[in-house]
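Form P-L/3: holo structure prediction, ligand manganese (II) ion.
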Amino acid sequence: MTEQPAPENPEGDEPIKQRKNGLYPGVSDELAENMKSGWADTELRDLRPIPQAQETARRRAGLSARFPGERLVIPAGNLKTRSNDTEYAFRASTEYAYLTGDQTQDGVLVLEPTADGHDATLYLLPRSNRENGEFWLDGMGELWVGRRNSLTEAQRLYGLPCADVRELPAALAKATGPVRAVRGHDAGIEAALTDKVTAERDEELRIFISEQRLVKDAFEIGELQKAVDSTVRGFEDVVKVLDKAEATSERYIEGTFFLRARVEGNDIGYGSICAAGPHATTLHWVRNDGPVRSGDLLLLDAGVETHTLYTADVTRTLPINGAYTDLQRKIYDAVYEAQEAGIAAVKPGAAFRDFHDASQRVLAEKLVEWGLVEGPVERVVELGLQRRWTLHGTGHMLGMDVHDCAVARTEAYVDGVLEPGMVLTVEPGLYFQADDLTVPEEYRGIGVRIEDDILVTEDGNRNLSAGLPRTSSDVEAWMARLKG
Ligand code: GLY
Ligand code: MN
Ligand code: MN
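OUTPUT (holo model):
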């Protein structure tokens, strides 16, 4: 890879002519002059607003109404160093993308209070200056990182005024009056605010945006369906290459799913869990460096993230050779039954906790029936004894974050009531650790989870991930078909 020059002098009038690190030769006056001209006007003049422009405007209006008279600062975030001068792939903050539809690094949304609400401005890095050499000599120059939208183009796309983000820190440092910011994404912007914000007030802003996102609008539901549909294709891809994974490792599965995510979407929404054999009992197994063996199960928990940053979160536990053993099937069918009970409890007006309780009860019944824990079931559930093998909560909100709306208040989420438009996962599991001496040896090293993405509708629910089979016999038939 070609080494990038360090950023320097992006806004000054002085021409950039010499690399600081000395790795680049100086630029002659003649070359500097030559590089200034001979470039076509590429301004895009017929851009249409992004499809969700009305929704983002409505979300900003909701935010404005909640915090009258206060300046609100919502950054997209900056690149993060991976090593030396290479960076991790950028992913805009959820709050910023939700409120603007934009995903540009270093962008900042500012809502400036007015007499009757707020004026929103999107602060972005404009196109590179060609007069001072920035576009080809600066590390963030467009010849290094690619063309950006002009501020006029961005204004058309996102439907709100845009300004140069390099002017924002000084403007914020001078501004007076109450301000709240979404923290943790842009240290430079936070530094400009330092003595005017408190952690508690900032947290109220983050909580409000998290709760705004609990109920999805039609655009968001469409995006989540796209994410799930791509994920279904990714699972099919994996089944088709299980022989190659057997010849290599779990990494083949991770790479196969990632290919689908990158070709059809923005990325994976979280680290893919490609857990073969006993790795399935590790809840977030993302090392994915183990063997894939015929006769074992593969627990695949993966989700494609769309270009608009909505992610699926789906799990299937597959027999690697296409057929469950009797014991694998018994455990799988129990988890399926628990998931069915959980999904049936997802409906408007139900408590969020209901589907968890319904699934846990079924799993407790099975564990008692199999003699792994002493009944009665009531006692097991009351003391939570089943949790040695069920381990985690049965689901969570899903959206732009895989564990969506994570800072919503308990009363609005975990202790809340389901409403149409909420999307959540239902994902019971049973996990028998390889070193669990309390279960018969044949159970040890078996982990099963089934996870689907469920939309709460007016009269019940809809399984967005119904495109993947769920019963053990349907899974086997589906695998046989795909393996041809
Ligand atoms: N993929 C993480 C989870 O299922 O919550
Ligand atoms: Mn998952
Ligand atoms: Mn999940």
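COMMENT: The chain has 17 helices and 17 strands.
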